[in-house]
Amino acid sequence: MKRIATLGLHHDHVWSNLQQLQETGQAELAAAADTDAGLLEKYRAEFPGKTYSTYEALLDDEDLDAVYIFASNRLSEDLTVMAAERGLHCLVEKPMASTLAGAERMSAAADAAGVRLMINWPFTWWPQLRHGIAMAQGGELGQLWQVKYRAAHQGPVELGCSPQFCEWLYDKELNGAGALMDYCCYGAVLADVLLGKPESVSSTKISTGLKPDLALEDNAILVLSYPHAFATTEASWTQIGTLTSYSTTLYGSKGTLLIEPDHEGRILLATPENPEGITLNIPPQPNHLENSATHFLAAINDPEFQMHPLCEASHGLGAQWILEEGIRLSDKD
Questions:
Q1: What is the number of alpha carbons within 13 Å of residue 8 lying toward its C-beta?
Q2: Average pLDDT of the chain to the nearest whole number
Q3: Residue 28: is its pLDDT beyond 70?
Q4: What's the Cα-to-Cα distance from 83 to each of 67, 77, 189, rounded to whole Å?
Q5: Residue 149: pLDDT above 90?
Q6: Which residues contact 81 (CB under 8 A, 6 or more apart)?
Q7: Pairing relationship of beta strands 256-259 and 267-270 according to DSSP bridges
Q8: Buried-state track 200-239, b at ≥16 Cβ within 10 A, e below 16
Q9: 267-323 tens-digit pLDDT
């Protein structure tokens, strides 16, 4: 039974991830730390373990195997380094960090300590997306020449995110940017897994004026250029509805894949023989790919376990490079 604590409760994704971890029956939720008293109270009402108002106190007092890190992008950098230096395996919520330098510090600390560092991208747990990635990597689409992903909703406040979550999402230093960091990150990591590091990045981030009190951009798009391919990753905090959101399209010389979002989404393949597309069956998936908890436990229980590419710190770093280049270019303009 692994003893796992949580550092940070002010990322709203934490609650579902903790629930999944508890449901495995393979881990003890040992403790949680945050500086927000209300979040600590919420944790005590739902989960076991001692609570702490400082991260250092938790790390000093508890005998642990690993930590979940669900803090702001900026704070996650420091917490990961602190935990890794204490020999603790780390699961960090996407996009890994607020800056490339911070992501590099995290990766270096984990490597030096010999601990596992897993980046949790929620779309990793969609079986149809994993199947599409495997098809592309296996050459079933021929030469992959475009990767396209769009993440969008009406905005964190409008979506009903907690005040603690919105507070740092709307802070450039704590988030790294606005919608660009929050949502272009998904397409960035997908492109890094499928196409690698781009030769160049083109970036546009704008404030539409629809959110006059927002100091950060509410929309962004990155275009990644490769020798014989390109990728686009789009983000919006002003889109009404999710009609075009969270779908992935992969274009290859032999076929096109449309991958619908969420756990029940379909995967459709168009070929010269079936230009309108056919729905594919997804093969049975191993238990360790059910969710972040089962995957992280598999990783920390077996040093030889190969994490899914989306979860590897190396691809988190690749995505961070893409994001930072996009921010640099947009700020320059």
A1: 28
A2: 97
A3: yes
A4: 7, 10, 24
A5: yes
A6: 105, 106, 109
A7: antiparallel
A8: ebbbbbebeeebeebebbbbbbbbbebeebbbbbbbbbbb
A9: 999 999 999 999 999 999 999 999 999 999 999 999 999 999 999 999 999 999 999
C-alpha 149/C-alpha 153 separation (Å) is 14
Domains and CATH numbers, the chain: 2-122+289-305 (3.40.50.720), 124-287+316-332 (3.30.360.10)
CB under 8 Å to 148, separation ≥6 — which residues? 187, 231, 232, 248, 249, 250, 251
Q: Is the bond leading into 272 cis (omega within 30 degrees of zero)? A: no
0.85 exceeded by pTM: yes
Is pLDDT of 332 > 90? no
